[in-house]
Amino acid sequence: MKSARTYDTVVGSDLSEQIKAATKDSHTRAENTQLMLSYQRGQINMSQYKVLLCSLYEIYRALEDELDRNSSHPGVAPIFFPQELARVEPLERDLEHVLGADWRKKVIVPAATHRYVQRIHEVGKGKPVLLVAHAYTRYLGDLSGGQVLGKITQKSLGLGSDKGTAFFSFPGVTSPNRFKQLYRSRMNSIELTEEERAEMLEEATAAFEFNIQVFDDLHKMLSVTTATEDESNNNVPTAAFPSSRIMQLTVGVCVTLATIGMGIYAQ
User: Fold this and answer.
1) Contact present, 160 and 151 (Cβ < 8 Å)
2) How confident is the model at residue 261, as a pLDDT?
3) Whole-number Å distance between alpha carbons of 218 and 253
């Protein structure tokens, strides 16, 4: 991994620009996949979308819990915009629409989501200023790609703009471009030591790496699913999880990666 000092000389002192430079290689690695293109092409069904919402809910619940808890921290307060950006409540409405009133009992997420959630909590408890790296990649990414992804989802699944796709809408943000400028300005105003700046760039890169790790998990799950289906077609008993459960998790990872990836890459 490149050092923070390298990016200081390339892009100056703005933290937002340094993060873009620091994550360029990881960005390219994660971006060059077929999964993101699949979502853009509308290759999504309701079963996939349900598991996608579950993963997004767990990620944002962790992030917003930690942001709320650390809202007065000098490294978090400048980028704390709950009225404009909070996603947990919209996701809860979406989950209730697609899963029913008892949706909380039906939440299923892949292991990679758990790992990322765990990291967000670790950062929030141990080094709150690093929450900035996660908030930046998530919120600004989803704000950038939200309208496009929302329309794709509505068209692919036949959902109304107010039924099941609230996650993609930011009613508290009248101008996404102006808001992103404000957000970056606030972010760049955070005072960081040289060591903290280096840690921030590493954490931003780690956010991308978590997604790449999910890709690795996906490939493993696809292999297991294929083997299980082959055995099932041959009427051979298997001790593995039921293929339907594996497939449910697998497609969930596919769509979660595609959407999370598209969000992050739309900086």
Assistant:
1) no
2) 46
3) 6
How many angstroms separate the CA atoms of 240 and 128, rounded? Answer: 40
Q: What is the pLDDT of residue 16?
A: 94
Measured between alpha carbons, how far is 179 from 205 in angstroms, rounded to an integer? Answer: 23
Q: What is the pLDDT of residues 47-66, one digit of tens each?
A: 878 878 888 899 999 999 99
Q: Where do we find the tokens 């400048």?
A: 78
**Burial state string for 250-259 with b = 16 or more CB within 10 A and e = fewer than 16:** bbbbbbbbbb
Distance, CA of 29 to CA of 24 (rounded, Å): 9
8 Å CB contact between 196 and 129: yes
pLDDT tens across 139-172, in order? 988 898 888 889 999 999 999 877 899 999 999 9
pTM confidence score: 0.79
Within 10 Å of residue 34's Cβ, how many Cβ atoms?
10
Longest dimension (CA), the chain: 63
Alpha carbon dihedral 132, 27, 247, 115, in 10-degree steps, equals -40
How far is it, in rounded angstroms, from Cα 98 to Cα 94?
A: 6
